[in-house]
Design a protein that fits this description.
Elements: E1 3-4, E2 24-29, H1 40-49, E3 59-61, E4 67-69, E5 88-92, H2 103-120, E6 134-137, H3 142-146, H4 158-162
Parallel strand pairs: 1-4, 2-5, 2-6, 3-5
Antiparallel strand pairs: 3-4
């Protein structure tokens, strides 16, 4: 797995700055709105670099499966308002809800999910409530629903990630 490490120490200043005790991971789509944008991944990394945008993720997965470590495992990131301090964030380069998730992204996401499980005990399950323990799409959280978020969306196949019956 190609991993670009330590690029961006951006974290949520309103939190403790650490999420090491969490057991919740939000999956996001980058959402530039430019369908099929070939530079979506690095463009999102650049967007997160600017603190004015107040947006970041712990990790970002590009189309080719490269995993960019933005804030890493130990720092909170700006990704979902009140959930920033209690949940990690993995972002898939996905300009629109209609952009497919690549085979390389699925492979990298499965690897990242296993990493969160092995390092921090995050259960390898898809949950439908932010009050649970496991992995959840941004759109499935109360914060995401309240702000009309669509990420990741219908393109994310949880059965493909976790096995039949786990999605």
């Amino acid at each position: 797995m190609a991993v670009a490490l330590g690029l961006f120490p951006r974290y949520c200043a309103s939190s403790s700055g650490s999420v090491a005790d969490n057991d919740l991971v939000l999956i996001h789509g980058s959402r530039s709105g430019n369908f099929g944008n070939p530079t979506e991944g690095i463009g999102t990394v650049r967007y997160c670099w600017n603190p004015v945008n107040q947006a970041s993720y712990n990790h970002l997965i590009d189309y080719n499966g490269t995993v960019y470590e933005l804030t890493g495992y130990r720092a909170a990131s700006w990704h979902a308002a009140y959930l920033n301090a209690r949940a990690w964030a993995i972002c898939l380069a996905q300009p629109t809800v209609n952009d497919a998730i690549t085979d390389a992204q699925y492979s990298a996401l499965r690897w990242m999910m296993q990493e969160y499980h092995d390092r921090f005990g995050v259960p390898l399950v898809h949950i439908k409530s932010e009050n649970g323990r496991g992995f959840i799409e941004h759109r499935e959280t109360a914060q995401g629903m309240g702000h009309g978020k669509s990420d990741v969306g219908y393109r994310l196949d949880w059965d493909r990630l976790l096995g039949p019956g786990n999605g």
